[in-house]
Design goal:
The protein is of the alpha+beta class. It is built from four helices and nine strands; from the N terminus they run βαββαββαβαβββ. Strands 2-6-5-4-7 form a five-stranded antiparallel beta sheet. It has a four-stranded antiparallel beta sheet with strand order 3-1-8-9. Strand 8 and strand 9 form a beta hairpin. About 30% of the residues are buried.
C-alpha cells in the first residue's frame, strides 16, 4: 500500500491556458513574496483529497464516473481576478470563473457527498470556482500592495471560455522544485 497525494481537476483548454500564462507573466515580479503557480501546473481544482491509499483509487474513480454519467459537457468563462480570503487580506490570488449553468457547482456538491461516503473529509466552506494563480509564501503574510495593484489591473481581463467534457484524477508529487502532476484517470461527462 502506498499513499498518493490526490486531487480532482478540470484541465484547461489550450486558449484559456495560454491566456492565463500570459496573465501570470504580467503579474509576476522578482522577490514579490508570491509563490506563483507554474504555467504547466495550471488547472481548475474541484476537490483536494490529500493522501489516498493507492488501493482506494479505483473506488474514487468509480465515484467520479457515476457523477459524470449524469452530466453533459458544459461551458465555463474565465476572467477577472480576485483574492482569498479577501482583497484586504489576500493570501491566494486567482482568476475568476463564471459557471452560468451551475453545473460545476452541482458536480462539486455531488463529489463532496459521494467521496464523504468513502471516508474523505467534506470541505466545510462553500465551493467558489477559481483558478489559483499564486499564494503568499508564508501563512502569516499577505500579498503586498504592488502585487495587489497588478492584480487589480487585471480584474477585467478575459481569459476565454471552454467546454468542460472531462474531469481528471491527478497525483501530485512534491519535491524541492515544487509539485509535479500525473493524471491517473480521465473521466468523460457522458450523459445521453
Amino acid at each position: 500500500m502506498k499513499n498518493i497525494r490526490t486531487f480532482i481537476a478540470i484541465p484547461l483548454a489550450r486558449d484559456v491556458d495560454r491566456n492565463a500564462a500570459r496573465m501570470l507573466q504580467r503579474l509576476k515580479q522578482p522577490n514579490d513574496g508570491i509563490k506563483w503557480v507554474p504555467h504547466e501546473n495550471l488547472h481548475l481544482t474541484l476537490k483536494f483529497l490529500g493522501d489516498v491509499d493507492n488501493t482506494e483509487i479505483p473506488d474514487v474513480c468509480k465515484a467520479i464516473q457515476r457523477i459524470c454519467s449524469n452530466y453533459s459537457p458544459f461551458h465555463l468563462d474565465f476572467g477577472g481576478t480576485g483574492a482569498f480570503p479577501s482583497m484586504n487580506r489576500p493570501r491566494i490570488l486567482y482568476a475568476g470563473i463564471a459557471d452560468a449553468s451551475g453545473t460545476l457547482q452541482e458536480i462539486v456538491a455531488q463529489l463532496e457527498t459521494s467521496l464523504a461516503e468513502l471516508g474523505f473529509k467534506q470541505e466545510p466552506r462553500d465551493y467558489v470556482p477559481h483558478l489559483t494563480l499564486g499564494r503568499t509564501r508564508s501563512a502569516s503574510k499577505v500579498a503586498n500592495s504592488e502585487v495587489l495593484t497588478r492584480l487589480t489591473a487585471e480584474e477585467k481581463t478575459e481569459l476565454g471560455s471552454m467546454q468542460v467534457d472531462t474531469l481528471n484524477l491527478v497525483a501530485s508529487f512534491l519535491d524541492k522544485s515544487g509539485p509535479t502532476y500525473q493524471v491517473m484517470d480521465t473521466i468523460t461527462l457522458d450523459f445521453q
